[in-house]
Amino acid sequence: MASTLSSRPQLQHLTAQLDELRQKGTHFRLRVLDDMQAPICTYDGKQVINLASNNYLGLTADPRLREAAIQATRDYGVGSGAVRTIAGTMKIHMELEEKIARFKNVEACVVFQSGFTANAGTVSSILGKEDFIISDELNHASIIDGARLSRAKIKVFRHKDAAHAEELLKEIQNEPGRKLIITDGVFSMDGDIGPVDKLCDLAEKYGAIMMVDDAHASGVLGKNGRGSIDHFHCHGRVDIQVGTLSKAIGALGGYVCGSKDLIDFLYHRARPFLFSTSHPPSVTATCIAAFDILEQEPERIDRLWENTRYFKQELARLGFDIGGVSTPASETPITPIIVGDGRRTMDFSRALFDNGLMATGIAFPTVPEGKARIRTIMTSEHTRGQIDQALDILDKTARKLGILV
Ligand code: PMP
């Protein structure tokens, strides 16, 4: 029998907000993947070229990783059975953490259920209400939520503006509270790179803790995809490095790298670690095998960058606004196509899908009002033919809708 809950008055404020989104043209319906993430896949029964996933290195479908997941399920079952601190720490969890710590060249690592919980769980637990967080205005939502949960005082600097970050640090330099400087390594909506080196200089000058969220830099920037810290040669200068296992690594999860004491502290105080069940063996084994592939097949990252350069160059040649004027210029495989108006962006995204291209429209509040865009992500696995076909669909659809004239 159909539920009648939606007619109950208690939730009518939600219905009203949804109606508002519908009026603005930014209400969306979830697209459903019928097969698996790949450059060509099937959403809602339609085969499309996929420019929407974070599957940078094509690992979600890699046969070796699928086999690792199946073998781990055979050997260790489907679940860990408890939170890590009670009875849910398996040998395979420790193996993954040691592997990531070696890969990142740090003392220790702890894996969380997601990149979101890694950020939020860390920021919220290491600071208190006497402390200060100096945060880039475009940092990820998980950093913002973690900062709010910490109850520390939050000071937001203009995007990538280290001079502004320094002004904020000067204002509080005589305050007794601890200071944390935090930036994304790669910003998820614009694809630009955070000024990690300059912020490290500030952290050292003002005695602040330095933290970088490398969700979109892991597997993408630096030697073998070691991330933004390697890209900027800032080894040993970043106290807390966060990464995700859900994007280039192809599976699910997040991790925090740093000193032994930092990780031991998070074992004792990070709430998602303490109060939420750990990964199943299948996910953990997949990630272990994925780090082996990062070490053994750097050519995937070379292909990713080759595809990225070609795609960006051709988008610009066709006349698309791919950032750099009213929005930051992308420097990575995330390339926004700026449209501006939310409704127009969503219409463009739907028309692209109808013409065979999956490219997500992103509007306010995920990006600022007036900066709505189609967000594209290139992978190492797209062929030149697929990229050319995607460009052709983008060009023809944009001209038909008057986005390109
Ligand atoms: N940080 C950034 C910059 C991200 O883009 C994301 C994913 N949207 C996350 C953290 C969270 O990662 P996960 O999807 O693994 O929770």
TrEMBL record:
The protein's annotated pathway: Cofactor biosynthesis; biotin biosynthesis
Gene3D superfamilies xrefs: Aspartate Aminotransferase, domain 1, Type I PLP-dependent aspartate aminotransferase-like (Major domain)
Necessary cofactors: pyridoxal 5'-phosphate
One Pfam match: Aminotran_1_2
Residues in Aminotransferase class I/classII large domain copies: 47-393
Uppermost EC category: transferase
GO molecular-function term, one example from the UniProt record: 8-amino-7-oxononanoate synthase activity
Keyword Transmembrane helix set for record: no
EC number assigned by the record: 2.3.1.47
Keywords, in A-Z order: Acyltransferase, Biotin biosynthesis, Pyridoxal phosphate, Transferase
Modified residues (N6-(pyridoxal phosphate)lysine): 247
InterPro entries in the record: Aminotrans_II_pyridoxalP_BS (IPR001917), Aminotransferase_I/II_large (IPR004839), AON_synthase_class-II (IPR050087), AONS_Archaea/Firmicutes (IPR010962), AONS_Archaea/Proteobacteria (IPR004723), PyrdxlP-dep_Trfase (IPR015424), PyrdxlP-dep_Trfase_major (IPR015421), PyrdxlP-dep_Trfase_small (IPR015422)
Protein name: 8-amino-7-ketopelargonate synthase
GO biological process: biotin biosynthetic process
Annotated organism of origin: Silvibacterium bohemicum
Record note on quaternary structure: Homodimer.
PROSITE patterns per the UniProt record, alphabetical: AA_TRANSFER_CLASS_2 (PS00599)
Family: Belongs to the class-II pyridoxal-phosphate-dependent aminotransferase family. BioF subfamily.
General function of this protein: Catalyzes the decarboxylative condensation of pimeloyl-[acyl-carrier protein] and L-alanine to produce 8-amino-7-oxononanoate (AON), [acyl-carrier protein], and carbon dioxide.
Catalyzed reactions per annotation: 6-carboxyhexanoyl-[ACP] + L-alanine + H(+) = (8S)-8-amino-7-oxononanoate + holo-[ACP] + CO2
